[in-house]
Amino acid sequence: MSPAQWDLPPELCCRPMAFVALTGLDVVYNAIHRAIWDAFCANRRADRVPISFKVLLGDHEYPKCRTKRTSYEWYIPKGILKTGWMNKHLNLVPALVVLFYELDWDDPQWKEKQSECATKVEIVRTSLQGRNTKVAVVLIQKKTPLPPGEDLVASERASALCGACDLSGKSLFVLPHTDHLVGYIIRLENAFYEHAQTYYYNEIRRVKSHKEFLNKTTHQVTRISAVNRNFYIAEFIYKDPHTFHVLSCRYYRTAYSLVHELRAHETNMLEIKTMAGFINYKICRLCFQHNTPLDAIAQFRKHIDLCKKKIGSAELAFEHTAWMSKQFQSFGDLFDEAIKLGLTAIQTQNPGFYYQQAAYYAQERKQQAGQLCSHEPGVVYPAPDPLETPSGALDFYGQRPWRQGHQSIDPPDSEKEKQGILALQVKERDVLHSELVIALLSNAVAQFKKYKCPRMKSHLMVQMGEEYYHAKDYTKALKLLDYVMCDYRTERWWSLLTSILCTALKCSYLMGQVKDYITYSMELMGRASILHEEQKSRIEKNLIKVLMNEVPQPEPDCDLTSVKTAQSLWSDRISLAGNNEFTIEVQDYVPFVQCKAKFLYPSFHIDEPVQLHVYVRADCPHPVRFSKLCVSLSNQEYNQYCLLEDTSKEKDILETSTQENMCLVPGKTRKYCFKFVAKTEDVGKKIEITSVGLMLGREMGRYVYLNWRGGWGDAASSHETLQASRSFKRRTRLPEQQLDWDTVTIQSSTMIISRVPKISVQLTHEPPALTNEMYCMIVTIQSEEDTVAKDIKLTAGLKPGQDASLTQSTQITVNGSEVCDDSHPALLPDISLGDLQPGQKIVKPLYIHCMSTGSRILLFHVAYSVSATVEGKDINCKCHKDETVTLETVVPFEVAMKFVSSKFEHLERVYVDIPFLLMMDILSASPWPIELVNSEVQLASSMTPIDQPQSQVEGVTLQTSECASECFLLKCPPVQNGTSTVASGHYFISWKRKSAFAETSVVRTIVILPHVMLENIPLYVHAELPSFGRVRESLPVRYHLENRTGLVQDVEIGVEPSDAFMFSGLKQPQGRNGDTSIEAA
Amino acid sequence: MAVCIAVIAKENYPLYIRSVPTQGELKFHYTVHTSLDVVEEKISGVGKALADQRELYLGLLYPTEDYKVYGYVTNSKVKFVIVVDSSNTSLRDNEIRSMFRKLHNSFTDVMCNPFYNPGDPIQSKAFDSIVSTMMVQAC
């Protein structure tokens, strides 16, 4: 009984096709025949008719035909379906035999050839002996035939040949061997196919006709025949591609229900199930082909529900599960095949489920085989072999070899029956069940992967791993389990993880894999494991043994022989050959030790020691000792200060008296403090905890390093931290020295910052600053250090990062005596101020030149170095202190200018040669008094002063919003054209802030004088008027008229008095300008 | 009546899981875990279109030979899974629905407990007894 016993026979799984035998072809030596044969066989695509061709000899012997029974009265069928029947009708009994014969119509030896052909036909007929198989003749001709009816010789000879061979005209074909061979062949095979169909149609009729003999369907025998009949019909119909779907399926269904109507008992149960399985397969297959997958699924479900309980003989229960497994598997195969042909499956209905169920039955089969086939050692395979049959094969599907054809309820020979069952059981014992299970599971895995079921996939992989474990392939088992473990870990299904870990631990024990053994033990002892205390305790003891280089106790429920091998493997490991140091990256696991490392503060000053706390906690049942605790920092130079090592070299790992510090008591949090002095180069840098390592075991022997990357956290920590942070729970006060684990927060990096400066920086100044002034700021630096502050450097100026235009308009210098220009920077770096003794102070004035108004931030940065002692170490600390100040800049004064006449009347324009006044008003806007040192007018060429211009405001001090004015008498020389705008020149004001606070320098401000309209006038009228007059007294008025042209002008003057005046003197004088002066009084 | 009842957190880890003690507990854990595949698929499929009036009851997740697995998702994405025996054909969809509704009510009570930290395993006696009423009584 090979595992293949349960496989469906190939002739069942293939698609039934009409079988046509070709004779008279010599495909080996005749090239033409070869070409014909190739044209039949090659390229049989779906569009060609379903025929299977075979070349046979002319006298080939076909299976003998039974003599037809005329009465079924005494007929007792020996079984349902003969094993040979399907093969017979597929491959042995042809529907049509075709005789190929080379003969042209005008062959000179026509007569002889005709009779030879007739003989050959006769031989074929004889060998078919009573079968209804049709015979046809194909004449291979060298000439292309004429159109039908034109070749009279041909038609005459054709009918003669038909007569000689006893053939109908439809069975004679001509195959001209010309260029269009394939075309002829396709036409030929279509004709063959029609013949074949006729044959199968007749066969169906013949089978159907048997019905008449079977009058009652209640009899078991007749039922069997009915099944048979329907199956046959369905099979024959199936061969026709046009009708097979519906009709064939209907007959199969009838056959199927008839199978279940058969009276089932222990002796024929297997036969019924086998038959039901066959027919079910056919139905499902047809449904899938017909694109009705739901029908297929429904049929299959019905099939399973009907057969599930038909176990048959209890002693051979494994046969039932094997059969069930096969049913699911073949349905899965059919489903998968249909998907490949375009069917779409969904997540909840895909072949994976059927493979999974098949695997489940295979597992059950294995279990049953284990129970039923565990014979005593003395039991051997019975002889003679009851499974041997004379022919080497069974006559009917699903029957017992030792009682073939037997149809009654009781077995004929109980002794034989026992032997047979024993033989089957012994065979079953040798079946490699695990392989079957694994193959099915891996099929299912592939399907579930396709249909987006990651968890189902993981579950099946676990099952595969477990099956490999049972099959003692521990390497593969471990590989699979290890692969899926992390899925369960990240999803936090601890119950499932624990179960997987237990199997994995067994595997690693049995293989003597030290690292895996340690890893799994650690996780099983930890908080993620749901094992009981005593189990954890056992594992811990084993782990300690392994770390002490001893052989661990075997895991429970392991195969005894494997345990023996494992023990010797572990004994070999004692020699410590090979690698004995293991590093476990904790973030991928949930080990029994937890760790949190933190810096005490987010930053430390360079002159204080950096403090680091490491909290360690164990969840295992017994105290555990470690031999080393080390912290790796981003700057590895500090690592040496963060190391706790077991210095004693004593052998006993459990010795705790002196080493209490390095012993972890379950459930208690231990704190280890480390301290170190940071290097001065690290000021401004970040120090990070890159990892924390905890060493278990001995450096001399075997040890394992638990490595926490970043100083804390394993695979479960982040969730736990989140839950703890959400928790309402009050932090319960624990006894002294004990900490609540959840309250320990993480601080995995710290900044090293410079020492706090002990100096004071003061700024003295009088804001706001005035535009363009050299604004004085006095920086006072006073040392409060205990030692000398060396190398004091002051950086002062505009704080970087402000508007770029400010940089352009701000300059700073230490020299206040001169006004800054563009060569001075906005920020003056590193002004060296020397050393400063304790208590001493330095005063440094700085001058800032602001060319634009607005506010700007100024920075005063004082840096120095001082030596300090930390933890007995002398270090040179650099300190610095920053002062910033926001400085407003305002304009000191505003200058208003205007042109007025000599009578202080406002002038829109000035006239050539007529004197006028230029008047300036200086309005102070400064909050501080301003002293005007000097002022000066620098005239443009278009204007000349009339007298010596001299400053009238020199030495004047202006308080806030006071105004100083001065004027200059000017006139304009003549210009060429009549009216034009002329420039006036510049006005210079020298001024300084009047301050008691610091010596200030004089600032010269330039004001551009406005342009003015200049006009030439021909006649200048000038009136002389007394400043006042008296009532009834004369008021003498004198008008001067001046002709400013080069020509004599006639003038007429009229005076119109107002109502307040009366006239005396000339009222309308006339004259000529230039020669006389006209005066009116 | 159910053979296994489970409450699964939003992040897909179990908050509560109870099964009849007669059969393998582990098997039920695996069944519940694998059913989350279908739950996830159903949530992601439905979530977009009808986020608001989404039906909480997901119906039959998938049938195995022996068990039927039903699912239910609360608005906060906490999942309830009920496993019933396939042979128990008397249970109708409506009864399953009402079981889920009862479970949801009891779960809401658990959440309302100020001493319960959401995300922690459920250890409520009241919840336990509600679940007990829905479970197949162990013989």
TrEMBL record, chain A:
Top-level taxon in the UniProt lineage? Eukaryota
Name the encoding gene, please.
LOC107680915
Q: What is this protein called?
A: Trafficking protein particle complex subunit 11-like
Organism encoding this protein: Sinocyclocheilus anshuiensis
Q: What residue stretches are annotated with the Trafficking protein particle complex subunit domain?
A: 268-527
Q: Which InterPro entries match?
A: TPC11
- Family annotation (Pfam families): Foie-gras_1 (PF11817)
UniProtKB/TrEMBL annotation, chain B:
* GO CC, alphabetical: perinuclear region of cytoplasm
| UniProt cross-references to InterPro entries, sorted A to Z | Longin-like_dom_sf (IPR011012), Sedlin (IPR006722), TRAPPC2L (IPR044760)
Where does the record place it? Cytoplasm, Perinuclear region
Gene3D superfamilies attached here?
3.30.450.70
Q: What is its main location?
A: cytoplasm
Q: Name one Pfam family in it.
A: Sedlin_N
**Family per UniProt?**
Belongs to the TRAPP small subunits family. Sedlin subfamily.
Q: What is this protein called?
A: Trafficking protein particle complex subunit 2-like protein
